[in-house]
Amino acid sequence: MTLLPFGLLMAPGEGGSPLTLFVQLGLIFLIFYWLLIRPQRKERDRHQQMIEALKKGDEIVTAGGIVGTIVHVGDERLTVKTAENTRLTVERSKVGRRVGGDAEPPKRGR
Questions:
Q1: CA–CA separation, 76 vs 16, rounded Å?
Q2: Which own/partner contact pairs does 53-56 have at CB distance under 8 Å and 24+ positions apart?
Q3: What is the DSSP string of 9-46?
Q4: C-beta atoms surrounding 95 within 10 Å
Q5: Where are the domains of the chain?
Q6: Over the Cα atoms of the chain, what is R_g?
Q7: pTM, whole model, 2 decimals?
Q8: Which residue among 8, 30, 77, 106 is least enclosed by CB atoms within 10 Å?
Q9: How far apart are CA 62 and CA 58, in angstroms?
Q10: Average pLDDT of 83-87?
Q11: pLDDT for the residue 21
């Protein structure tokens, strides 16, 4: 039985082919892309879409954990009502998530 994948991961000996090194580096890059880069990019895109869809009346949680309801929407900032007479101005990028409705991420099936 040939163990080709294990043979590719072995260190090249004297006079080994540089092709083996390039294949190993390519495999490492693909593993990093599929396990780290791609999921992070998808999460960033989903968060950006959520931020762009915020509107007056949405209940949000900021990155700092402050919970409130949006009372005014600007281009870069939101005014959030956190208590009866308390209003905070928050940058859109600091909104962690939207509470309720379709804000929750979909459940993954097994």
A1: 56
A2: 54/78, 54/92, 54/95, 54/98
A3: HSPP-TT--HHHHHHHHHHHHHHHIIIIIHHHHHHHHH
A4: 21
A5: 1-52, 54-102
A6: 24
A7: 0.65
A8: 106
A9: 12
A10: 93
A11: 87
The tokens for 61 are 């949680």
SS3 (DSSP) at 2: coil
Name, in order, each residue with C-beta under 8 angstroms of 47's C-beta and a sequence gap of 6 or more.
none
Total length of the chain? 110
Return the closest-CA partner of residue 71 out of 90, 53, 52. 90
The SS3 assignment for 92 reads helix
User: In this structure, what token pair is assigned to residue 82?
Assistant: 């956190």
CATH class of the domain comprising 54-102? mainly beta
48 close to 40: Cβ distance less than 8 angstroms: no
Pull the structure tokens for residue 50. 């959520």
Tens of pLDDT, residue by residue over 12-34, are 555 568 888 899 999 999 999 99
Tokens of 23: 């294949």
80: helix, strand or coil: strand
